[in-house]
């Protein structure tokens, strides 16, 4: 039996579609159809592969006739699409990735979710898609987590990964911004994305993003385009690439799933995000803020491959690590550049990456005081 509940969402919602006028709308209701049989007890919690286990419910909200329709929470299931669905052909598709954890008291905590809401809206705008007011986005995220709160792991190293995404749904062959969209949020309990330190290669031929392109947007095509070079690197024995700029391949940008950080002469150095080619990582921003509080020098600036290789040759690089929601803080053990392979020193408890990783984890689990007000309770 379909159980339909009407819950009030106390939020004012502004929806903007680039081809239409501003629309002001208050979402007053949400339809909820709960699963009759939870899959929670079928999960093998000791063997969770990242991205393969899905919680019981998903939230779906459609955009049609220039307006968002009533959101629905329903059992997690496949969706059916018209073969001409425009996102599949023309790539109007954006997504976010966030995590929820439980503190000792059993409260569910989100980490800086307002930054995901903002980045989602920016990605939508870049891709000519309607935006969702950031408070409404957050409300919808909270609603889906609330209904599946039992799926939020309490085990160290595990989280509930939250995947909000939107894609164009016009059944139409032709290049134009779609008139119809679907927004979905589903969640998955996850463990580590990377289980061991990574071997990476500095990419000098293929390009992830170019100035004026969509590198800053979290849009599906950026990931699709990176697969071929990543696959080639994998064949050569590397786990990931370090992308360089699309013009001269002279400056370091980021990795395929995370932003990148170097500790050179004791300073934390990371590529500046002033260029529109790098994803504005929430983990990166948080690491920078934490480390600055520890009085460690931080430089956000262009870092050339030459500068990095020179520092590696002179053994001035003590740490290299990637940072991202899925990746958390991922150690890099080896960097390849042309025919050279540089091994980084072994990771110790004194490393900035180890300390910041522990600090972030303590914050997310509510074990230390949240002095920056980053946690949001669901
Ligand atoms: N860069 C890329 C390409 C990513 O996919 C991600 C992950 O979302 C990041 C960086 C890190 O961003 P965040 O820390 O917000 O997850
Ligand atoms: C994330 O870190 O949330 C991402 O979207 C990256 C992806 C590799 C899972």
Q: How would you describe this protein?
A:
By secondary structure, the chain is of the alpha+beta class. The chain is built from 7 helices and 21 strands. Strands 3, 4, 5, 6, 7, 8, 9, 10, 11 and 21 form a 10-stranded mixed sheet that branches. Bound molecules: pyridoxal-5'-phosphate and 2-OXO-4-methylpentanoic acid. Pyridoxal-5'-phosphate (PLP) binds next to α5.
Chain-wise SSE layout:
Elements: E1 12-15, E2 23-26, E3 31-32, E4 57-64, E5 67-68, E6 72-75, H1 86-90, E7 93-95, E8 98-102, E9 108-111, H2 113-126, H3 134-147, E10 159-168, E11 181-190, E12 198-202, H4 220-235, E13 240-244, E14 252-255, E15 259-264, E16 267-271, H5 282-293, E17 298-301, H6 305-313, E18 317-324, E19 328-337, E20 340-343, H7 352-364, E21 375-377
Parallel strand pairs: 3-6, 12-13, 12-19, 16-17
Antiparallel strand pairs: 1-2, 4-5, 4-6, 4-11, 7-10, 8-9, 8-10, 9-21, 10-11, 13-14, 15-16, 15-18, 18-19, 19-20
The structure holds pyridoxal-5'-phosphate and 2-OXO-4-methylpentanoic acid (COI).
The site of pyridoxal-5'-phosphate has 12 residues, from helix 5.
The CATH superfamily of the largest domain bears the name Aminotransferase class 4, branched-chain amino acid transferase, N-terminal domain
Query: Which architecture name of the largest domain does CATH use?
Result: 2-Layer Sandwich
Count of alpha/pi helices: 7
The unique ligands bound to this protein are: pyridoxal-5'-phosphate, 2-OXO-4-methylpentanoic acid
What's the main sheet like?
Answer: 10 strands, mixed
Indicate how many domains the architecture comprises: 2
Shape: globular
């Amino acid at each position: 039996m379909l159980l339909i509940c009407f819950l009030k969402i106390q939020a004012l919602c502004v929806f903007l579609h680039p081809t239409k006028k501003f629309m002001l709308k208050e979402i007053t209701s949400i339809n909820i159809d709960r699963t009759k049989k939870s899959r929670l007890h079928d999960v093998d919690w000791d063997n969770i592969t990242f991205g393969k286990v899905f919680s019981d419910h998903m939230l779906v909200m459609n955009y049609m006739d220039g307006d968002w329709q009533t959101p629905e929470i329903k059992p997690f299931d496949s969706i059916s699409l018209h073969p001409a669905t425009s996102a599949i052909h023309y790539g109007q598709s954006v997504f976010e990735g966030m995590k929820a954890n439980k503190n000792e008291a059993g409260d569910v905590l989100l980490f800086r979710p307002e930054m995901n809401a903002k980045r989602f809206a920016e990605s939508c705008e870049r891709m000519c898609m309607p935006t969702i007011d950031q408070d409404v986005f957050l409300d919808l995220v909270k609603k889906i987590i609330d209904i599946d709160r039992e799926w939020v792991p309490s085990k160290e190293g595990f989280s509930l990964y939250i995947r909000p995404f939107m894609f164009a749904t016009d059944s139409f062959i032709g290049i134009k911004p779609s008139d119809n969209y679907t927004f979905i949020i589903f969640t998955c309990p996850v463990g580590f994305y990377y289980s061991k330190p990574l071997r990476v290669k500095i990419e000098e031929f293929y390009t992830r993003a170019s100035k004026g392109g969509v590198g800053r947007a979290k849009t599906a095509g950026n990931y699709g385009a990176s697969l071929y070079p990543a696959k080639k690197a994998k064949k050569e024995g590397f786990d990931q690439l370090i992308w360089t700029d699309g013009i001269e391949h002279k400056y370091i940008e980021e990795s395929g799933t995370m932003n990148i950080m170097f500790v050179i002469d004791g300073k934390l150095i990371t590529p500046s995000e002033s260029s529109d080619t790098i994803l504005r990582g929430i983990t990166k921003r948080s690491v920078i803020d934490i480390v600055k509080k520890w009085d460690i020098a931080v430089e956000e600036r262009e870092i050339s491959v030459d500068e990095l290789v020179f520092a590696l040759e002179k053994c001035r690089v003590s740490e290299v690590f990637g940072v991202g929601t899925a990746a958390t803080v991922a150690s890099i053990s080896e960097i390849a550049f042309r025919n050279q392979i540089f091994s980084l020193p072994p990771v110790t408890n004194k490393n900035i990456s180890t300390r910041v990783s522990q600090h972030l984890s303590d914050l997310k689990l509510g074990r230390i005081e949240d002095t920056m007000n980053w946690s949001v309770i669901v």
